User: Fold this.
Amino acid sequence: AQSVTQLDSHVSVSEGTPVLLRCNYSSSYSPSLFWYVQHPNKGLQLLLKYTSAATLVKGINGFEAEFKKSETSFHLTKPSAHMSDAAEYFCVVSKVSPKYSGGGADGLTFGKGTHLIIQP
Amino acid sequence: GAGVSQSPSNKVTEKGKDVELRCDPISGHTALYWYRQSLGQGLEFLIYFQGNSAPDKSGLPSDRFSAERTGGSVSTLTIQRTQQEDSAVYLCASSPGLAGSYEQYFGPGTRLTVT
Assistant:
């Protein structure tokens, strides 16, 4: 079974300062990991994904995340926060099912989310 | 191209009534997923389709919930005899279903309110 722990339910930073959203995971299989963002009253948008290629993954809007197997972590960072970054962020692990060689993971496990607040 | 669409966007129903929620995945995506997002429960996986078959129904909370997918495309989530605890946003996602391509693309959701 897989699980995801987002270590902070809320993070508040000033505009222009770095952002760090922490995520730890556990998985019985080689994990695929994702970060999704959800703006108020909007759908979930994929920020970035890790699927066993490069351990440092770059996503949209200047975000990036580093996969560290030894620490079972996949923290999300951004060098300089913007007001438009205020949203809910979800760390997600996908179980790569051995049952279906055609691909298509059988479900995502979401963390409980981190609410990012940007102070002017 | 067009993303995942869901209808209706909002649904208010009385306790005990049945509801049907619809999902149109991205064209060509063979994998389709239903999730439920509610306050205090976060986002939970309900069911997964690969083509028209549902290899994983483990997340369906009770036998009042069912889903089907026809033609490898549109999916319908049905909730029978709705209860107040069914109130939530129901999200649909689709994925190419190809090895190495596990990211999912989400629709805007259907907000269900059971009164």
User: Anything to note?
Assistant: The two ends of chain B are 37 Å apart (CA to CA).
